[in-house]
Every structure is written in C-alpha cells, then in structure tokens.
C-alpha cells in the first residue's frame, strides 16, 4: 500500500529539495567569485561551497538506499525521523563548510552517525526477513 | 503489479544507457586529448566533456528519485513522458557543453524545469496520500 | 512480498558498506599524505585513491538501478549474484587503482561487463512485461 512508503517518499522529496538548494548555492557562489564552468577551482570561499555540495550529492544515493531499506524492512516512522535528522545535519554541514573546513566537522560526524544507524536498522530488518523466509527462524 | 512500474523501469533503463554513453564519450575524449587517469584536467575541450558527464551523473539520483515518486504517487504515464523529455534535454546539454559552456545553457534550463515539474507532481501525489491516510481528507 | 526483494536489499546493503569502506580509505589517505579538505589534489598516491572512490561512487546509482530492475523484472537470485560479483570487482578495482592506474583495468572491465549483463537482463524483463501488458504478447 502507498501509505507504507508515503513518509519515506516525503523525506526523499525534502532531500531532493535540499540538494537543489545546495546546487543553487554553488551557482550563486560561482557568480560571486567569477568562477565560470567548466572551472571548479577558485578562491577558497568558492572551493569550500563547491566541495560541500559535491560531498552532499555523493552521499545522497547511499542515504536514499539505507533510508528506504530501513523504512521497508525495519520501521517506516523510525527511518523517516532518522532521515529528517540526516537532512538537518547535512544543512548544518553545508553551512559550516561554507565558513571553514573545521566548522563542517560536527555536523559531518552527526550525519555519519545517522547513516550508520540507518545501516544497522536495515541490517536487522533484512536479516530478520531472510532468516524468516529461508530458515523459518523468527529473529524478533 | 509490475505493469504499474514497467514504464518507469523502461525510462530508468534508457537513463542508465544514456549515462553509459556519456561515460564512453569521456573515455574517448581522454584518448583524443591524452588525459590519462587519475588526471582530470587538460585542454578545455576535454574539461567540458568531463564536466558535462560529472554534472549528468550528479543529477541522475535526484532525477530517478522524483521520476519514481511522481510515477508512483501521481501518474506513471505523465512521469514517464517527463522522464523521457529530461533524458532528451540531458543529451542536448551534453552535446552543447562539448561545444561551449554557453551552448549548454538552453538544455540545462529545460532539464531543470522538468525536474521541478517532477518535484511538483511528486509533492501533490505524496501530499494527497498523506492527507488521505492520516487525516482522511481527499485532496483530489 | 518482502522476500521477493530481500536478497536485492541485502546486496544493496553490502554495496553501501563497501562505499563506506572506500570513503574511509580516502580519509586515511588524506591524513597520510596531508591533503586537507577542500583540497582534492596532492601526491599521485592520494589522487589515485581519491579518483578510485569518486568513480565507485559515481557508478553506484547506475549499479543500484540495474540491480533492482533486473531483480524485479527478470530474476532476483540471478541479479543478486551478479550484484555481489560487481561489488567484488569494484573492491579489486579500488585496490588495483591504489597501486597504479594500470592495475585498475582488469577489474574495471569485469565490473563494466557485469553492469552490461544486468542492463541486458533488465531489458529482457521489462520488454517481456510491456509486451505482455500492452500487447498481450508472451515473450518467454
């Protein structure tokens, strides 16, 4: 049923909007510091914003994968709350990185921690399903 | 049922083939301009093709996310047509960028517009499902 | 049913863990060769590890897309085995690239071959479903 994935879908959409926001920030930074494509190097202010966006984009597929695995195999509500927290952490990561590489560290560790939590929840849920189906063994 | 997602699956597969095509173009460009990995800088002709591919790859997860959200929560046929148009726009973006950064702008705006359309359709569909399920309120 | 996608989910999770491992290797390499973010250039040893990770991350969404398409529209077990082989090939790709660009070539061709196989299986499965549903024609 659709309502079994509607919260995951909503978090995914918020995530897409956040990535779009990051991409627009890079465009603004390109204009501000006159760094025309295809160039990707320039003043440190630009390079930090650029790297922040790249990093968030790189991790987005990993995030979506574990958000949906945890939401489908473990619990939709729990996964969705973790997902929202991850997106908040990424927002502060981006803002922090724009200021200095050091400022990104706190939110970076937070977002990594949430990813590991989603990985753990996914692992429990998938293991439970595999044991139940192939060995008829109930984990929980 | 599988036929509820078969068109989305077909568009996704066409998208994967397009990304593979872009990746092969970069390999050809590396050979033509003698830019051996791990180097990513070289003559502007190479750097434009390289950046075009990176940009298409970066946006591919966002595109897939909203294609499937719009297709599942709004309407499969509408989302699939938007998806095909996006892939066509990306083809012209890649070809344009290979010629000059300016030539990429038209298809870039078109592909961004289609992404925003898919985001809008997803938002309507997901909101409709959430309101229906949690508040028993019919949006449409 | 969940067990129809549990193997795909398990392979996806292994893939996420592999990407996390690659990311940690880059962090270790940044420390070893003193390449602080947002810098992405440095000694060739660092640049090879960095490029290896980027390449694996770039292809991860394409891999997930065809893993799931092949698993849902063709056959879950076959797709999952291909998926595991792909992840093994990517591990040797990463290790090889860390040593020299040449050492990455064998696993690179292997992983590309597996991707094409998954693309082929997806195409057969999706075509079968589309013909069956829209033309009432049985391909297999």
From TrEMBL, chains A, B, C:
One of its GO terms (cellular component) is endoplasmic reticulum membrane. The keyword RNA-binding does not apply. It is a multi-pass membrane protein. It comes from the Eukaryota. GO terms for molecular function: enzyme activator activity; glutathione peroxidase activity; glutathione transferase activity; leukotriene-C4 synthase activity. One of its GO terms (biological process) is leukotriene biosynthetic process. PANTHER family: LOC100127769 PROTEIN, MICROSOMAL GLUTATHIONE S-TRANSFERASE. This is Leukotriene C4 synthase. It comes from Hymenochirus boettgeri (Congo dwarf clawed frog). The lineage of its organism: Eukaryota, Metazoa, Chordata, Craniata, Vertebrata.
